[in-house]
# Entry
Amino acid sequence: MNLSGQTVFITGASSGIGRACVSAFAAAGARVLMCARRVERLHQLAAEIDRDHGADSHALALDVRDREAVAAAFSGLPAAWQQIDVLVNNAGLSRGLEPLQQGSHDDWEEMIDTNVKGLLYVSRALLPAMVARGSGQVINIGSIAGREVYPSGAVYCASKHAVAALTAGMRLDLNGTGVRVSTVDPGLVNTEFARVRFHGDQQRAEQTYSGMTPLSGADVAEVVLWVASRPAHVNAAEILLLPSDQASATVVDRS
Ligand code: NDP
Ligand code: 8X3
# Structure
């Protein structure tokens, strides 16, 4: 797959799926604009992809929940980085896993502010230029949690159902503009996701993947890159990507 000359913007690039997307797009020849809060990790990644692929990149320290910072980040981009061909809306997280009646307000707000409002702020900042150019692509990282609801995960699942609705809504609103909109919805992926969900409890995080083989960030990145590499008349609109051991959000073979 060759994306040379294309500029891709990947949110949440400091870890997991986002980090793997940076490597995959860089290996395919794309120029990579990336953001996360832990910008020192992005600088290390930029050095890595330059060394391994000679890739051109630019790192932004950005909290996608901060509406003004998102708008300022894009209006302040160097001219060479202002034309973005592909947006990968990946930044996201889960916090907590407990019945709704015991849930934490802070956890709920963090998930909704990041997964839903952050995705909206970034998309709103980038889409007008894509529409004006008559081309572009938005690839949202949804989840199996956007297709099913599982016990103790209501708010995370609600946030990913919102991503599914926003993907569908964007596709309707952008129809006829030349801008394609897709979602890649993974099942269990071994990243820092579970550690973040359990507020750093590594033992609990490891149980998430016990007895089964999860996807890696690279498995998901390969599919995101495939979606971005389709010819302009093809839109790979929705992909559900599961580990072979997983049949649904709750049915996982751990034998
Ligand atoms: P990781 O925790 O490994 O990575 C999450 C990334 O999101 C990090 O780079 C983090 O960067 C970034 N991020 C979180 N909050 C913010 C914020 N406020 N502003 C900017 N960046 C932020 O998890 P994954 O790679 O697994 O998660 C990536 C996406 O994939 C998420 O949307 C998640 O919901 C989705 N997903 C994950 C699955 C899994 O099983 N792992 C399955 C299905 C979907 P930093 O902290 O440096 O800001
Ligand atoms: C992450 C997958 O099943 O842990 O979106 O919610 S799951």
Observations:
- The mean pLDDT is 98.
- The radius of gyration is 17 Å.
